[in-house]
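Before relying on records like the one below, remember that each one covers exactly one chain. Contacts with other chains, cofactors or solvent are not represented anywhere in the record.
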Amino acid sequence: MQTDAVKQRMKEFNEKIANKFKETRLLTDGDRPDLDNWVDLLEDDDDFADEFNRLYDNPAVGEADDSFDPDSFDTYINMELAIDRGGDVPELARVTKRLRDHKGNPIGTANNNPILDSRMYEVTFANGHKQAMAANAIAEAMFASVDKEGHRHLLLDCIIDTRCSKDAVTKDDAFVVSFNGTKRRKETTKGWEVLIQWRDGSTTWSKLKDVKDSYPIELAEYFVQNGISDEPAFAWWVPFTLRKKERIVSKIKSKYWDRSHKYGIKMPKIS
């Protein structure tokens, strides 16, 4: 235990240190520093001044008010939808910004009822064309092109390319052998994606498993024409599809519901 004499010596030592470095000047006013007492250090010690300014009222850090923008929470901004412009098929467009009047005020008023929402927006088409569009017209176009779960309906224009990952079954592993020695092809679509251009002008890499049932004939013909129909992911169904082409055409529903978007908004990928 420390004796009273040791405690007194430590107290005197601490007081001398405080006087040496003039610690009493660094007083605070409540929970804030009294800048008048810090003036010498702020003026004479550049390193201290830089650190002090970085921690206390740093000018490089803006107030939340400076970056707040009501449009950041606007559910229409960045929405993608197909819009009828008088052509054979609707064209893909993106809602890019809220329109404002000559004074900088947003045009129109929001309403929970889309029909009564009078806000105006700028939409940009794939070819760069821009036009003004009312919120209620955007909502009408969006609901007209999605299913009950919000996935948009796409019509095939053409197939552009294919790609496969390391998960795709190789030709060396394309068959299974049963207990009695019968050899048959594996039924697989794993690892393959198809680059498709849709009739609204957009293009997407879609998994083979997602588009195979909607466009089997178009896919089968593309694989044959490009000399890849012998790949394990295609060989087990392409020949049958082409032989039964006419029967399939009469029964197939050529619809593909794009699940990468919901109510016009691109959904994050879940890995």
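The CA atoms of residues 79 and 149 lie 16 Å apart.
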